Amino acid sequence: MRYRRLLAVPAVALLLAAACGGDDDDDDGGAAPSEGQEENTGTVNLMSAGEPEEVEAYQQIFDDLINSETDYDVEIESVGDFEEQFQIRAEGGNLDVAAVPQPGAIPDLVDSGSIVALEDMGFDIDELNDTLGESFVALGEYKGKHYGLPTNINLKSMVWYPKDDFDAAGYTVPETWDDLMALSDQIVADGGTPWCVGFESEGATGWPATDWMEDIMLRTAGPDTYDQWYKHEIPFNDPAVLAAAEQFGDVMFKDGYVLGGAQATPDIAFGDAPLPMFDDPPGCWLHRQASFINANFPEDAEAGVDYDWFQLPPIDQEGTLFGGELTVVGSNRPEVVDFLNRFIAEDVQCEMGGVQASSRISPNVDVGPDCYANDILADASVILTDSLSSGTGRFDASDLMPAEVGSGTFWTGMIDYMRGGPDNAESVLDQIEDSWPS
Amino acid sequence: MAIDTEEPTAPPEPGAEEPAGRSPARDAVTIGLFALALVVGAVITWVVLAQALDYMRDQDSNRLLVIGLALALGVGGIFFLFWAMDRLVNMLPRDVSERVRPYVYVGPALVILAVFLIYPVINTIILSFKDNIGQDFVGLDNFKFVFTDPSMLRSIRNTLLWIVLVPLCAVSIGLIFATLADRLRRGEAIAKSLIFLPMAISFVGAAVTWRLVYGFRPEGFGSNVGLLNGIKLGLGQDPVAWLTIRPWNNLLLIVIMIWIQTGFAMVVLSAAIKSIPDEIVEAARIDGASELQVFRHITVPSVLPTIVVVTTYMVINAMKVFDIVYVMGSPEANQTEVIAERMIQWFFLSNNDGRGAAIAVVLFLAVIPVMVWNVRQFRQQEAIR
Amino acid sequence: MSLTVPLPTEVEEAPSGATVTASETVGVRRGGWFTKIVIIAVVVLWLIPTLGVVITSFRPETLADTTGWWTALGHPFRTSEWTIENYRLALDTGGFENAFLNSLAVAVPSTVMPITIAAFAAYAFSWMEFRGRYVLFVLVVGLLVVPLQMALIPILRLYTGGASIGGVQIFPDLDLTGTLPAVWLAHTAFGLPLAVYLLRNYIGSLPSSIIESAKIDGADHFTIFWRLVVPLSVPALAAFAIFQFLWVWNDFLVAYVFLGGTRDTRVLTIALAGLAGSRGQNWHLLTAAAFITMLLPLLVFFSLQRYFVRGLTAGAVKG
Description:
Shape of chain A: globular
Strand content of chain C: under 5%
Number of strands of chain A: 11
Order of helices and strands of chain A: HEHEHEHHHEEEEHHHHHEEEHHHEHH
Structural class of chain A: alpha/beta
Structural class of chain C: mainly alpha
Oligomer: heterotrimer
Largest interface: B-C, 141 and 144 residues
């Protein structure tokens, strides 16, 4: 009796399996990107570290210019903790395309087999060099192949100032570093505080200070030494770097130069830092920060009227510091390649530059200044594309260094420097040098 | 009271018949058929699930329908699975069936845990012996780092502080509150809900909440909107950057976790307190015991197992704390690092898989004493039962 | 199978002292002023931070950023102090309804599935004898320590490509990433250790006399579990349901990794994260969003309160 009951189970099972096994699991929803290898369909998922409002606007542009014309869909995602989520997707094998702000991450990604080379996807590097600037494209190079496509660039060597009050006080835009220091002294003499500085950014506190160091390094030691610095061909505590750190300290630690003092800078949110410029009278007058900061200015502040900017002056030589994104690919599919080609094309890039909420500048040298939503971006774009074509600009060094240093000890080292005072420069640099992974 | 510690004297199985003669050969065949039935049953379940799965995974499906399907399959299906397996076990010879049945009951849980948690643990342990991209073996280098790097040592020190203070405060306050609230004639539900509220606020909400308490802005950068600085200004003093004062800032962050977790302790302990039979408490009161004595000699011992559970959970949670520390300022600069935060920092932000994994392994090892304590408590309780 | 134990056929309102027992006449301090004062004190202390959040969520942006929330208490009737604009903006977030439904679709199954599986396991750990009982249980509980961030990448790899050892496929390539079942399974797995822990504790502390007498009456394990243990464990089941629902509802990371952040699939927490602004400075919006997302879990909490009944087992022992 028992046996019969037991046998009944497999019998029923076989019947059921025969009945259901016929129709296979053919998913009909467009959820599986592995389908459509031949037909250029499916979804291309782009991870971006941009702000949600920006990204929404970009999605609109993609919908209009790309999704409407192609069989595949591009979905752009605005990601909160970008580095963490990006690493999870890349190592988990779920990455389509990502716009990465830190090219220094590329070598490890290549070694672990997570990303695909541009050459393997059919891109012509010479063509890319012409369109996007060889120095930028070269940043994605590793072991002879290129892995990142430049898709966004922002200017970092900018000093913002409250134009209306500035002009009213009779100050003039400085052309050299000495002029800049003289201007700062003038402001102090007039009873004001020249510099607005803030480095706080939660777990990333300290990054704006690295921008200062890089700007100064470029202008004192020059682009070649700069390259040696981020490639670790010279140690982090090399005399050239120390000299740059001391020059940085000359601004930060001088009495009355920085609003709140240098030791308060790690506690002031970087986005709050420029706000005293808009008080009456301005709490501080000069703010050195990248092009995206004007999104934090008061809504009623008008570009060119209430505020303006000038390029950080040369010290021993000129320099242009920029940051940006290299887009990397995790999955080599026809629709992905097609999307990338459209992404860097002039029309899409021009539209993206026109988005109000964004401060995106296109590395595509054919994208002209009239594509941009405001004059500030337009002027910056000219400087950038010039430096790209001539090869004099340099990418943010901390984003090129290994993450341990570039997103770790370099940041915290700067905080220690601010809190510890000018005499600490050497020991801070020593510590950063010690932390460089072998 | 018969205590269930030996071989369970099984009650007569429904529908299981005692065959006239049992031979090893027949037993073997039976067990074989049982195994086959189990496998085939699993296959059926799989096929049915796959069909429903396809519907549920489609991103355009009606969400409510998906929920309904998930409930039917998830709960109904799982329940059916257990029932079916139980029935199958009944067909085995009696002594074998009673040995097998417990594994059938815990089996699904163990399988899921093996795939989703144990496999990652093994993966992590292996990674901890490898380099930063998880390719070459580097022996114990990562572990050496964990125990020599100053930031790591600080994180260990800080974590010890967390795992002592958070459970101590959360469980004590939760217990006392649950006991007192139990006695309220009215408003018990409201009082408990208000203590529970911090748990319901998402982490982002909690972060904003406490920024509005600890926030600081230096002179010239706007007025202070943080409560503590508001009080200080009200008293005529200067505002303070609370979260940067080392080492007290650790305590400030610990307060946040206590604020959140006490609700959990309270809810669980409340359920336990409510299962203490009334008669015992009344008897003690009639005998003249004071409330404090009732608490000490009846309430606490009765819910001791639950206190162990809640404390264990709090300790483990405190070991894993990451968000709170990460979001409130720069942990390394403010010296508020904790082990889990260091793990995330090294694994994800400094892109060093090996070090991150080694820190995780240290965390795994650190939980062993807690588990040993649990086993002891577990055994003691069963002995009494 | 008849059981001599009277089972609760309905669940009533939690009787907060409504039943008059002998203690009423004896305990003067039972529910008296001491109790009330301590309770009120603790509640007030706990509420102060939350009060800041509530008030800020109703204040206009400029005020929220430039003045402390306590100043609003000074003149509560000035209409310029208050606004519901923040809530309007939060609710206006693109795809709010879709995200809400997604959150629900993630949270409900992720709550009930682990309860079902864990209940069986907890029963076995409590009332069944088998080899490896202690070891397996402690292993399950020990898994509580596994930080879920460490599990994300391995699981994602499994979902995306399956797993094989030496060319042999031991885990099929289900291509689950970006689907709801992926998140359900993940949440179920992450919730199981706590579920088993809590439920085992509660089920194990049921008076063994009940179980014994049921066995003597001839009930088998399944019947004991389903008809006796589960109804008696309702407070513990309800407690865990609350926590799991809450945790899944407020979760961001697991949903983001396994479901994604695109317009169709994102859950509420992801949709509202965009309100934070580039440096998290939009206090007014964040507080409003926090309150909106908090409503449903609180509702769940309230509605499950009725299961925290006193004396479920009291009557049972008499059998």
